[in-house]
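Q: My labmate handed me this sequence with no annotations at all. I'd like to see what the chain might look like in three dimensions before we decide whether it's worth expressing. Could you predict it?
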Amino acid sequence: MSGCSKRCKLGFVKFAQTVFKLITGTLSKDKIEDELEMTMVCHRPEGLEQLEAQTNFTKRELQVLYRGFKNECPSGVVNEETFKQIYAQFFPHGDASMYAHYLFHAFDITQTGSVKFEDFVTALSILLRGTVHEKLRWTFNLYDINKDGYINKEEMMDIVKAIYDMMGKYTYPVLKEDTPRQHVDVFFQKMDKNKDGIVTLDEFLESCQEDDNIMRSLQLFQNVM
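A: Here is what I predict for the chain of 225 residues:
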């Protein structure tokens, strides 16, 4: 691995840690100031004001996130391999590779094989601070693996199994091998309103908002984000 690649990987670890601070609410104003003071580069992206208007992050938060993403990773983009390595560090007791693969492609909306800061922070804003409707639409896009506008049972199974694999045996000590399939069977039956074998966006939104069990299960996604 080249020196630049190592620096990019380490820098994105710092970025991921900052993201987790935001998720857990531990990134206080004072800590934001501290992290800004530790930053050696004063450059600010031209589109920062636009991102502030488009997302639910403050200018200070965007500055911290940008530095964690760009200053330590000069290319300004993250590839899938680096993304997988980061998730592997946060979930050492499981296999995060497939979930990271699906999540990466949900962030990579232009399907270029890389994620820019703008792509990541826009999605992050939805997942952490968006409305219920916005979060559900984004989650639907994640489950719609082939991007045909529908979710079939195989796609749902792939995502759910990837989540269970990532969480690992220590999180689910009594998990049976067929548990993911059982959950998918129940949820898909509830979501596929007209029984045509696929779930549309409207069916997904309606099912999630009318069934507390489905909504609670989808919150697992928020926790592993």
